[in-house]
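Input.
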Amino acid sequence: MSKELIIIGAGSVGGHIVSNLNLYFTKRIHPIFLDDDQEKHNKKFCGVDILGGISEVEKFDLNCPVIIGISFPSIKIKIYNYLKKLGFDNFPTLVSRSTWISNEVEIGRGSIVYPGCTVNYNTNIGKFVIMNMNCAIGHDCVISDYASLSPGVNLGGYTKIGRQSEIGIGASTLQFINIGNESVVGGNCVVVRDVKSGVIVKGVPGR
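Output.
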């Protein structure tokens, strides 16, 4: 008998998960989508039913596992707060079998680590972080809650990524870089100095 799994967001993250359930789950899972885009309702996405808007979650048992399959930090935290207020508290952590995670690494609940990622020792990944394909995370890094890392991000050792920050495709940091909360680092940017909170950085070197 398969276990029901609610996925919030019938988009790129949700599509990846339902297309690759075998990379994340050892038992049979029956996924369903909830999405507030009304044009998607009562249709299928990647072969999985989209039952309706996010409010439909109220019809499910509070123990049902929920994945927030959305990469945008500001939306992700709003959805989490809504679910938490309802009483949902089962947010599985998804780590692809094709990743390399060193010993002495902590990963918070609700986070999603895509295939091809490598994470070195003494690194702390917060809750509801998305780490897309082929990210390379150095030792002693901190990736704070709700941050989103695009494919191919490379973090030098001792890098700290602030809460709700977004790191673009192929961006990289030198060692000991601190990036503040709610900041955005552009694609292929090389960050060579600390970034304050709420700042957009782009270019090589990053400005």
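The chain is about 10% helix and 30% strand.
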